[in-house]
Amino acid sequence: MLAFVFPGQGAQHAGMGKELAENFSVARHIFEEANDTLGFDLKKMCFEGPNEDLKLTANTQPAILTMSIAALRVLEQETDLKADFVAGHSLGEYSALVASGAMAFKDAVHTVRQRGTFMQQAVPVGSGAMAAVLGIEKDLLQSLCVQAQQGEIVSAANFNSPGQVVIAGHTAAVDRVIALAKENGVRKAMILPVSAPFHCALMVPAGEQLNAVLDAITLSNIDIPVVTNVDAAVNSDSSRIKELLISQVSAPVRWDESVRYMLDNGVERFIEIGPGKVLSGLIRRIERKIPVSNVENIASLQAL
User: Which of 90, 161, 238, 258 is catalytic?
Assistant: First the structure.
């Protein structure tokens, strides 16, 4: 069995998708559809940057989604590979929903543009932070978060792989967790260069705003089972998609468990579709022997 997985924020880089769009009309069409839907030149931003603009959350989210779906359409055209499961990391869940047939691309790219804007606006710049904590047990980290709260918010945001957890919350509370982690012998804990504290309770207002955007779009049946971030299990019911996407904004991304769920249900190979190889690295940490490929340009497509 085969799973297609789609990256989230942080995988973006200037030049992504340019080679695919120059060589495959199906990829070029996706970038043009994104431009038409959003009303600005996202294609130029993806192909040329600058990286400072690509790093803005409201741009990053539609850019990565567009690049990922462009690569997916090329993969579908050039191979006969079919996924048994799809999943995405945070933002990547929208790419997975497009791949599953449940959400139209134009609806997805419009929604994530709004999602990025809402998430950025939910917390004033500088008052929230995220940090990666490496080599720590989940229970210890959660205990340290409780100790560090002191009336503020801090909690686990991403369970990425064994020993790699990301936390999010108020900046001072995140700093307190880092200090406590080091006191407890944790080898590495570091602030991440992100613009807002995603996947924690500070994002609840963003989820409430997202509700209205999702209400305006029509969803279709799910053709390929989607392993969701919130449940770390399959959702095949399109009526649950909206509630899961709203919860996802402020709930932790259970990536480690999601990959294990797919492995336990017969997945023997993963293909990461979109910019970079972040998920490929995480999957190999979760299960060292599992074959993982990626598709982001012609060289990776030919290797596959």
Answer: 90
| Rounded mean pLDDT, 174-191 | 92
Q: Among candidates 278, 253, 295, 296, which has minimal Cα distance to 83?
A: 295
Residue 195 has pLDDT above 90, yes or no: no
Mean pLDDT of 200-226: 96
Rounded to an integer, what distance in angstroms lies between the CA atom of residue 250 and that of residue 166?
Answer: 13
302-to-25, 61, 65 alpha-carbon distances in Å: 17, 27, 22
pTM of the model: 0.95
Q: What is the token pair recorded at 119?
A: 């998430």
**CA distance linking residue 298 with residue 304, whole number of Å:** 10
Active site residue 110: no
- Residue 10: the pLDDT is 85
Determine whether 90 is an active site residue: yes
Is residue 55 scored above 90 in pLDDT? no
* Dist CA 134 CA 171 (whole Å): 19
Exactly one of 89, 199, 238, 250 is catalytic; which is it? 199
d(CA 291, CA 103): 28
For residues 170 and 153, give the distance between their C-alpha atoms in angstroms, rounded to a whole number: 6
